[in-house]
């Protein structure tokens, strides 16, 4: 009962927000080109549905591929950092420094390196989604309870058994926390890539409608992107609930990282 | 079932060198543990109980003296897969169910068993420990006492030849503690495992053991080795018997006489 009323209250916040937006735009007579009311955005989204859908696909591909590359390489490097002192000590300062860099600033450079189209988008998405995976997963793997590992030693466990039975499941909550951050970063990366180096995709639509002062279409594209982002995020939450025991306890934290 | 080994400790000393001095953790400790028996080590903090445990598990080498494990010098390789542990913390895997937690030791140390055999064995132990119906629960759904029961089942399920218990009930409340002591005896009766049990609690040692080694602190020395003659099974009533209370008070006297801080 309590949960139900909370859900109703949460929905109300959204409704109040859009209603206030609609009303204020009319009351203050704000020009649609500055801020269109939600109703006009909805109409524009419907009228341009084909254009938006066609352009959602390349953005989705860029986000997903960039994210998957980031997760795969990040995971492997995290294992290296967790299990090899040399790798850890050599690469850690570099990784921290690289994490601080504003990687978005490299987007125009990637246009020069990788040309126009899908590749630079994937590279930017992967590059900024990569660091949370490395750092979080390495932290998860190294924070394993030492007594548990000693316990496994006393039983005569092999290194592989310790990894698969203890360290890997131990690191899973850290890994999924990283995935949730990384997917949102991959979205940012893909869109920035489309701003600078693409002839299609939602980022391109935003850019193009900006030039033609079609603010309604711009908002419609932003809505599409938000829906896409939320869906991708939910896929990760679902995977987490399948794999990590007690993941639901963490659900509020998950939405906080969004 | 493999036969439990006897352990023979002779003139064992362990010292650690620090920057400024040498700390003697154990000083000339000797005692024997009969095969399949239950021995407790009682003493104040700093009496080297944990050091002794590390020696017995083969993690630490003694400075001098010998430890014989079934007549042979003890080594890490020999004890691997032969020694079960129960610590103060249950150390369960939070992502595994009760049943899967108990199966862990068999998965690693008893590779010859099939999955079905391991599962049957785990279920059998959980039943003896009164955890039937909790097989599919996760550790966070269990009370502290139940978690420690699971930990004991896990340690006994692979039939280790020695079970080392390091203050396993210290973190539990008095009532849970007493229940678990009696249950431990029930579980142990099902095995031929030799138990070395470390505790701060004098009544606990008297109830459980066949032999008690009383130790002093800094350096750790054996004050007395006391056989406990009470017949088994030992129950609630055993705790009330005058001989039980007399023995407990004798041990308390030994420790107080030595360590004025705890008096």
From TrEMBL, chain A:
Subcellular location(s) of the protein: Cell membrane
Pfam families according to UniProt: BPD_transp_1 (PF00528)
Keywords: Cell membrane, Membrane, Transmembrane, Transmembrane helix, Transport
Matches recorded under InterPro entries: MetI-like, MetI-like_sf
Keyword Flavoprotein: no
Domain ABC transmembrane type-1 residues, every copy: 56-236
Topological category with respect to the lipid bilayer: Multi-pass membrane protein
TM segment ranges: 12-30, 60-82, 94-116, 122-142, 174-197, 217-239
Homology family: Belongs to the binding-protein-dependent transport system permease family.
Protein's recorded name: NitT/TauT family transport system permease protein
Organism name: Aminobacter niigataensis
